[in-house]
């Protein structure tokens, strides 16, 4: 776990930190006497630190262009530049810490410097070892982070299982994702075909996982998934296991003589993985699982067909209440349950049974609401409040998502207008875009219709990274047209796809959202910490706002602040709220 720096380090503690990671400092000061005083303090606190002096902004910018510095200590009033223009030009030339050296006593000056991007300010006449030590400590931490980043990048090039293969692995559990799992099933089929063998493909779905998330929170749900994944990997081998859905796992089992032997093996596996309760934060959680099984070659001769038939068997198990269901040909047709759900969703569209909940995004520094994300929910008269994971996939499959998505945009615009009419500080509302919506020829027209004639609709869009990259040229054109309508665009779940940096720099987007799976594990996983640092640095270099989602602890929030993340979103600040509760929160 990466610890936050001590805000008031002792000189001995500071020297220990600097010894591990000596920092490079650029001192920008046109008065030689003052420069020597500052250099003396630095030498006493951090003997290994390397200090370079510049007396003009031009000389400083030349040094910044020629090499990386971990810290810039800068007087803003120089022979060739004065005031905040100096600060802005320095910030444009470096992504590291800039601390202002000032003789100003006005609090407004100090506040303005921070607002413009300075990390801190040090008063020349009151310069102390403690104040300078705090700044050096943070610069040391940043230097260590960047060194770790460079080392990690080198390791990634040599090790296939590292971050350059994130598109093949589930970031939360480390298991193969659906794409890699299909490749492994294909290899198993090739081996079984040569040997004339049979093997089962199993899909297991955790029961009542939604209840765990709702009662104990997302962090507990993620911990449960990681533990379940670890048990499955131990039971069948990590290379034979995968995660194929939010609460769904897959396993390629060893060869068996027939269906009876496969059934015994499946039952034994479920007992091994789920008989004992899981323990999350000292709380025992019993989590049973249902399984759907397809047998090669009886139920499919290729990986896609085998997986599809295992999914059909699992759906049958959910409908019937059975814990283990083997594929049968009759399951290839749509089940009665799916047809019933589809009819209920069509009725829900006609009867306006959908509602929007809103989750705030807060400014990292002030904790004030900087925007909200609109999240669709189904208020079913029979089922109650249904979360999107239980109906969005079917709506996308049937095309109903086009009508539901258009409704969500109109409703978000209407709610934004209601907040303004109530005299509340109406935040901009981000609405998620479905793949089906973005692929539609009428996507931009649908957006324009939702906005109407109002230039104050207050809507923005969130599009997943992997979705944008599917048709990069076409999507860039559509997003540019959306921008022309006055909307901002954010790339959601950033880090889970495989973006080209060349295209990312060209995309008409204004924000990147760091996927929650990296935020939830970054304090315990050095690789994820490195990735978060990379995303933030990338976003800042492209002048994009960076938002971390899934923030659930103050430790995460503090570290993201140190890494200069702009906005935070997660249960630490608020769960998604219905309109009334969100209005009350805005009124505070």
Give the strand order of the largest sheet, numbering strands 1, 2, ... along the chain.
Answer: 13-14-16-17-18-19-20-21
Helix percentage range: 40-55%
The chain-level mean pLDDT equals 84
Structural Rg: 28 Å
The major β-sheet equals: 8 strands, mixed, barrel
Which stretches of 5+ consecutive residues score pLDDT under 50? Answer: 1-19
| C-alpha termini separation | 35 Å
Q: In percent, how much strand structure appears in the residues?
A: 15-25%
What's the shape?
globular
SS-based class: alpha/beta
Number of strands: 22
Number of helices: 23
Would you kindly provide a written description of the structure presented here, covering whatever features stand out?
Helices cover 48% and strands 20% of the residues. The strands form 4 sheets. It has an 8-stranded mixed beta barrel, surrounded by 4 helices. A 5-stranded parallel beta sheet has the order 2-1-3-4-5, with helices on both faces. Strands 7-8-6-11-12 form a 5-stranded mixed beta sheet, with helices on both faces. β9 and β10 form a beta hairpin. It is globular. The chain starts with 10 loop residues before the first helix and ends with a helix.
């Amino acid at each position: 776990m990466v610890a936050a720096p001590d805000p008031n380090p002792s000189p001995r503690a500071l020297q220990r930190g600097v010894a591990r990671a000596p920092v490079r400092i650029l001192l920008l000061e046109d008065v030689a006497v003052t420069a020597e005083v500052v250099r003396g303090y630095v030498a006493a606190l951090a003997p290994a630190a390397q200090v370079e002096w510049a007396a003009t902004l031009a000389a400083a910018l030349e040094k910044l262009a020629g090499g990386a510095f971990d810290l810039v200590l800068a007087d803003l009033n120089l022979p060739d530049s004065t005031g905040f223009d100096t600060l802005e030009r320095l910030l444009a030339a470096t992504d590291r810490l800039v601390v202002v050296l000032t003789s100003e006593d006005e609090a407004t000056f100090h506040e303005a410097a921070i607002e413009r991007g300075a990390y801190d300010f040090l008063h020349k006449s009151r310069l102390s070892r403690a104040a300078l030590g705090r700044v050096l400590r943070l610069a040391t931490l940043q230097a260590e982070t960047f060194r770790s980043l460079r080392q990690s990048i080198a390791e990634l090039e040599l090790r296939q299982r590292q971050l350059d293969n994130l598109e093949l692995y589930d970031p939360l559990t480390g298991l193969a994702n659906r794409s890699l799992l299909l490749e492994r099933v294909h290899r198993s089929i090739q081996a079984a075909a040569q040997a004339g063998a049979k093997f089962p493909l199993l899909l297991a779905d955790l029961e009542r996982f939604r209840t765990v998330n709702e009662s104990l929170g997302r962090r507990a749900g993620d911990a449960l998934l990681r533990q379940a994944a670890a048990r499955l990997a131990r039971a069948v081998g990590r290379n034979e296991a995968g995660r194929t859905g939010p609460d769904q796992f897959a396993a390629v089992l060893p060869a068996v003589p027939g269906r009876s032997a496969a059934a015994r093996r499946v039952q034994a596996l479920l007992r091994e993985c789920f008989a004992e309760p899981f323990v999350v934060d000292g709380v025992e959680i019993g989590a049973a699982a249902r399984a759907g099984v397809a047998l090669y070659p009886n139920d499919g001769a290729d990986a896609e067909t085998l997986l599809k038939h295992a999914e059909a068997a699992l759906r049958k198990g959910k409908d019937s209440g059975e814990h283990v269901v083997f594929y049968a040909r009759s399951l290839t047709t749509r089940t009665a349950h799916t047809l019933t759900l589809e009819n209920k969703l069509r009725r829900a569209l006609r009867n306006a049974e959908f509602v929007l909940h809103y989750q705030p995004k807060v400014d990292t520094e002030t904790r004030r609401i900087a925007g909200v994300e609109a999240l669709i929910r189904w208020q079913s008269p029979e089922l109650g409040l249904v979360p999107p994971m239980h109906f969005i996939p079917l709506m996308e499959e049937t095309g109903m998502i086009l009508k539901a998505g258009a409704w969500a945009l109109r409703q978000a615009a209407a709610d934004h207008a209601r907040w303004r009419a109530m005299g509340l500080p109406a935040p901009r509302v981000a609405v998620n875009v479905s793949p089906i919506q973005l692929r539609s020829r009428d996507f931009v027209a649908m957006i324009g219709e939702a906005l109407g004639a109002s230039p104050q609709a207050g809507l923005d869009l969130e599009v997943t990274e992997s979705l944008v990259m599917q048709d990069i040229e076409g999507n860039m054109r559509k997003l540019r047209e959306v921008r022309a309508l006055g909307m901002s665009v954010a790339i959601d779940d950033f880090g889970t796809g495989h973006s080209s940096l060349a295209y990312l720099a060209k995309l008409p987007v204004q924000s990147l959202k760091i996927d929650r799976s990296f935020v939830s594990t970054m304090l315990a996983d050095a690789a994820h910490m490195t990735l978060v640092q990379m995303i933030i640095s990338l976003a800042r270099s492209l002048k994009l706002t960076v938002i971390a989602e899934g923030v659930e602890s103050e430790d995460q929030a503090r570290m993201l602040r140190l890494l200069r993340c702009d906005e935070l979103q997660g249960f630490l600040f608020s769960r998604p709220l219905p309109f009334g509760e969100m209005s009350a929160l805005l009124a505070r």
